[in-house]
Design goal:
- The chain is of the alpha/beta class.
- It folds into two domains: 197 residues, Rossmann fold (3-Layer(aba) Sandwich); 266 residues, no CATH class.
- Helices cover 69% and strands 8% of the residues.
- The protein contains 19 helices and eight strands.
- The chain is rod-shaped, with a radius of gyration of 46 Å.
Length: 586
């Protein structure tokens, strides 16, 4: 055919086109790297379309014929080639993608599911491959899906509509779905011969052009043809009938408009437009996810703020409670000093020699019920710590539950892969689950017993070894009574050895000083031990909370880094592709 010979002129890429293709490959590789940062969250169909478009950059020009079933697509292709290579009929005859390529012999091979590759020795096929697609709006909806799925591979789409039902709603819907890929679309109005009046033809062509312009944003090329007349005239050699078929305009488009330079331009624009579509889509996806992650960062920051406030409030509230213990020790100290003033006197030498009686008097008049009150106050502190720990977990549970109200918003980006949404929600849910488990399984009595042992052990080891399970009050009584016994024992020995007016007062002063020092040491040790235990209890609660949110925190940090890097790469790739597109279209 003359068309085939003319299309083969200057088939080799020029230096400029070759340089552009090299640059485009580099840009697409960079875009692929950016998409890789989304991992399994890239829509498999998007990745397939992108990979196919990149591969198509080195293949023959791919001319895709699309349209509703029974619009005459197969007839148009047969008339274009000049031979009946595809079956025709009034019912859907194409149930798979047919790729027509040049070959010395007529063959067909199913290269993948629903993709049939045919070869034919037609000159036109030496420079381009023609794709016959299943009709849209057919009974079998998967036929339309096959066509829609194949469109991203195309370098040019010839959309065939029938003159007796031009630009149907079904066709409009299909074109709306494929226009996002930025494909060049030429409208073929077939069966124009059924309209005998020129005014009818003009009305149909104007209708198609008007609707095509509204849909595509620019006036499309609309070519009226009669594939039936063209096929008959090619077989008979009837030039007049061939001219009346409208196919000379198709030949002119293929020869003059779709020349070598234009085909190369469209070939280069095909993967470029696919890349731009995906760069824009996933750039927006990254932006939306970063907005979601900003809420997650706020969630983590709020939890951190709550933990810090919890610690500060615990220490603030602990001061007055510790003050009540100090008051108990101060009252006992005053009684002790008075006891020594009243007991260590010359007139009571005989009584001092009865150490057991002195000890019992000391325990009764000085120690009294102080141990019980100390134990009671420490018990209140323990209960307070346990209650505050429980309140902390209840607050976190409530807060996380409120945060999960935003779960429905994740659906906005679920369409491009559910991995991000699923992992994020699962981790967010795990915090709430962990908090609920802690709250629901919180055994106040067991926690109090455990904390009591820790408090006794922590405070007691600074005062006496092997405190075991005795209460702090009992420990205080042991230390204070022991100190009194030491003092009175020394005093008794002194009284037996020397009786004098100066010895007893001196020993009384010494006894009071040692007792005051012992109480001061006891107060400091008790305060230090309890304060340390409060810090430990608060730290344990914070550590448990941080352990529960650690996977969520890592997820947010990693996703933020990956999405920021991906979005940056996508912006760079998109900008480079836009500059290249401008270069190709100006």
């Amino acid at each position: 055919m003359v068309i085939g010979k003319l299309l083969r002129r200057n088939r080799i890429l020029g230096a400029r086109e070759a340089e552009i293709r090299t640059r485009e490959r580099e840009m697409l590789d960079r875009l692929a790297s950016a998409l890789d940062r989304f991992g399994g969250d890239v829509d498999p169909s998007d990745r397939k379309h992108f990979d196919q478009a990149r591969e198509q950059l080195s293949g023959l020009f791919l001319l895709v014929i699309a349209g509703e079933f029974n619009s005459g697509k197969s007839s148009f292709i047969n008339a274009l080639i000049g031979e009946r290579v595809l079956p025709e009929g009034v019912t859907p005859t194409t149930d798979r993608i047919n790729v027509l390529k040049w070959g010395e012999e007529v063959t067909e091979e199913l290269v993948e599911a629903y993709l049939l590759e045919r070869t034919h020795p037609a000159d036109l096929l030496r420079d381009l491959s023609i794709v016959d697609t299943p009709g849209t709006n057919a009974v079998l909806r998967e036929h339309e899906e096959l066509t829609r799925d194949f469109v991203p591979r195309s370098d040019l789409v010839l959309f065939v509509t029938s003159a007796d039902r031009p630009f149907t709603e079904s066709e409009r819907g299909f074109l709306q779905q494929i226009r996002a890929w930025g494909k060049k679309i030429v409208f073929i109005v077939n069966k124009i011969d059924i309209l005998s009046a020129e005014s009818d033809r003009a009305q149909v062509l104007a209708f198609v052009k008007e609707n095509g312009t509204a849909l595509l944003g620019e006036a499309p090329l609309v070519l009226p043809v009669s594939a039936k007349m063209a096929m008959a005239s090619r077989a008979s050699g009837d030039e007049a009938t061939f001219a009346a078929s409208g196919f000379p305009a198709v030949d002119d488009y293929l020869l003059n408009t779709l020349d070598q330079q234009e085909r190369i331009r469209l070939k280069l624009l095909n993967p470029l437009n696919v890349g731009l579509t995906l760069a824009s889509k996933y750039k927006e996806t990254a932006f939306e996810r970063l907005k979601v992650l900003a809420e997650d960062v706020a969630t983590l920051q709020n939890i951190d703020v709550q933990l810090a406030a919890f610690h500060q409030e615990m220490l603030k509230d602990f001061g007055p409670r510790l003050g009540r213990l100090d008051a108990l020790l101060s009252e006992m100290e005053v009684r002790g000093l008075n006891f020594f003033d009243e007991t260590i006197r010359i007139g009571k030498i005989r009584e001092l020699m009865r150490s057991d009686d002195v000890r019992r008097a000391f325990e009764r008049d000085v120690v009294g019920d102080t141990p019980a009150k100390i134990d009671e106050e420490v018990g209140r502190i323990i209960d307070w710590i346990v209650e505050r720990n429980l309140k902390l977990w209840q607050d976190i549970t409530s807060y996380i539950e409120r945060r999960q109200i935003s779960r429905h918003r994740d659906g906005m980006i679920g369409e491009v892969g559910a991995g991000f949404s699923y992992n994020r929600q699962a981790l967010l849910g795990s915090i709430g689950s962990a908090a609920r488990e802690v709250v629901s399984g919180y055994n106040r009595e067991a926690e109090a017993r455990k904390l009591a042992e820790e408090v006794r052990g922590g405070a007691g080891t600074t005062m006496i070894a092997g405190v075991g399970a005795i209460g702090l009050g009992t420990l205080v009584a042991t230390v204070i009574t022991g100190a009194a016994a030491d003092i009175t024992g020394i005093l008794m020995a002194t009284a037996l050895a020397v009786t004098g007016l100066y010895i007893i007062p001196a020993r009384r002063r010494q006894a009071k000083q040692e007792f005051a020092k012992k109480v001061a040491d006891l107060r400091r040790q008790l305060n230090d031990g309890l304060t340390r235990q409060v810090h430990t209890a608060v730290g344990d609660s914070q550590e448990k909370v941080n352990e529960s949110i650690a996977p969520y925190r890592r997820f947010v940090e990693v996703q933020q880094q990956q999405l920021n890097e991906a979005r940056s790469e996508l912006v760079i790739a998109e900008d480079a592709l836009l500059r290249l597109k401008t270069e190709l279209t100006t």
